[in-house]
Amino acid sequence: MTAAARIPCYFVLVVDGLPLTHPDTPHVPVIFREEREALAASRPLQTGDLTRKVVLETYADDYSFVEGRPLERPSGLTVQPAGL
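and the corresponding structure tokens:
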């Protein structure tokens, strides 16, 4: 079966070339079972003044790499001061 035909089983966020980890286990990547959970976790990483490159990596159930997709920085909403 080709990589494109494999059904994604889990997702890993890669930030500036390094997998996202938990402070208690810095050598173990955080694994997300659902894409929407990984996308939700990526939002705080892409806000603020810091420019970070965030990639969503997808893996199959046999732990083989399926694809990596760069995540775009979400366009922020601006708040206008009252009275303008």
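(Above: one complete record from the training split.) The beta strands are 8-15, 18-19, 21-22, 25-29, 54-60, 65-70.
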